[in-house]
Structure formats: structure tokens, C-alpha cells
Amino acid sequence: MANETSSATTVGGKAVDLSAHATKIGKQDKVATVILTVIVGLVLALLAAIVIYILAEGLWKVFQPGFLTNPSNNKELPGIAFQLFDSFYMLIITLIISVPISLGGAIFLVEYAPENWVTSAASTAIETLSSLPSIVVGMFGSLFFVVYLGWGISILAGCLALTMFNIPILVRVIQQALEDVPRSQRDAGLALGLTRWETTLNVLLPSAMPAIVTGIVISAGRVFGEAAALIFTSGSAAARLNFASTNFASPTNPWNIFRPAETLAVHIWKLKMEPSPGNDEIVWGTAAVLIICVLLFNVLARVLGKALARKLTSE
Questions:
Q1: How far apart (Å, rounded) are the C-alpha atoms in residues 100 and 248?
Q2: pLDDT, tens digit, for every residue of 179-203?
Q3: Which of 64, 126, 137, 172 to pair with 279, CA 20 to 30 A apart?
Q4: What is the largest CA-CA distance in the chain?
């Protein structure tokens, strides 16, 4: 009949059945969808199993009286109060050092650096540093900060070691956030007579800020759970802190950046290396606190990112 259309066409001199081809493509799409769904489901199931297992083993210990408020050398009810303080204290110092440096480096690479072999080499170096094992960073920190500079096993040495592998990650995150800002916004700022710096400060950074904050918070979670780099730099000695001390040079003053410190992750490692009765309970309790903090970092990243996106971009 004249109104009927053929399902066949000619490609390269060969007849192709379009209906059969569409059916084949549809089947391939369904198979790929099923395979990808199974992969994602397995990853999520594995993650959920790890989190649930750790919480099931250690959450009861977290709610035990004194666990979060007692020092680890308490003979009756040993806790993780000082390790918890040291973890957050070192995290704050690390972010104070690494965020401004990373922000400046990313802005330079995106907005100011010319396209040549120097910037290409810098980008390659950043990629390489971000993939270095943390134990290697810890060894370098031990040789340079602890021995060569003479700072000894200290919070400052540990924070600078953490900064070394945090900066490459933050630079890449901030660089990607800045590059995702539409070119039209840059051109509009320059067309209004703004300098490149004013455009970056008043146009690009507000637009990229949600992604930047999200990256910073997520990187904070990684820093918070780091252990290998700190074993050689900030140490694993049990903290003995006196919050009433006003002598900032005292090894018991909590704010002294030249004193040793033991974070939650290092505390777990030390307890597993020195097994004794009751250690396993403390290890699982500490692991539960650590994973709860990391999960909270990720939730906070999403909340802050969405809040900033609504406020700064009116979306």
C-alpha cells in the first residue's frame, strides 16, 4: 500500500532492517542498565554492610558513660576524650593552612596561568601528589619536619604532613569548580569593566562556592580519618592534657602545636598493635565515633552545598 513505510533502509549499499536494529539496541540498553544497577547495588550494599557492622560492634561503647569524656589512661573507664580533641584540633589547623594555598593555586591555574609546558607540568605534579600513598608522605614529613627542621614529633609536623596530600586534592576540586562556571559569566564581568581579579572575586567565586565548600568538607573527612602519615609525624603517645594550663610551651597544654598528639585513627592502630584485655571494645567504639564523624562530614557537605547554591545563585 502507498501509505505504508518500509522498515528497511540502505546504508553503504547494504539493506538494514531498522526494526531489528532498534530491537537489538533496546535489548543492549536493558542489559547494560541491569548490569550497571547490579554494580551500584553491590557497592551500596558493601558500604552499608561495613557501616552497619562497625556501628553494631561499637555503638554501644560510644554511649557508655565516660567513653567520650574520659582520657585513655583512666584505669576504670578509659575513654577517647583527648584523642577526639586532637583529631578536631589537627583538622582545623590543617584546613587553615591548606585551604588558602589551594584556593590561590586553583585560581592561578584557571584564571592567570598561560597554557604552556610549565602549567602542564604543574597539573601533572598535582595529579601525582594527590595519588601518593599517605605512608610516603608520612615518611617525608618525618625526615623533613621532624628531623631536619627539628620540630620533633608534634602537631605542627603532623598538620603539615596532612597538608601535603590535602592541597593537591583541594586544588583539583576548586579548579574543577571554577572551570564549571560558564564562560559567559566571565565575559559579562569583564564587559562591565571589572578587572580579572574583581571578576574572580565577585563573579566566579560566588558561583563556584557551593562546589568548593562541598569539596573542602569532603576532604576534611579524609584528613580526619588519616593515620599512616601521622604515626611518623604527630606520634602515637597517649595524650595527657591539662585544659587549665596557661603555659603554651607545656607539653600538656592542649593548644601547644609543638606537643605530640594522638588522633582517633592512630589510637585505633596503636590499640591493635598492643593487644590487651578490653582493647577490642575501645577499638570498635573509637571506630564507630570515627565513622559517625566522617558520615556527618558528608552530610554537612551536602547541606552546605545546597544552602550556598540557593543563597549565592538564587536557584
A1: 26
A2: 888 888 777 877 877 788 888 888 8
A3: 137
A4: 99
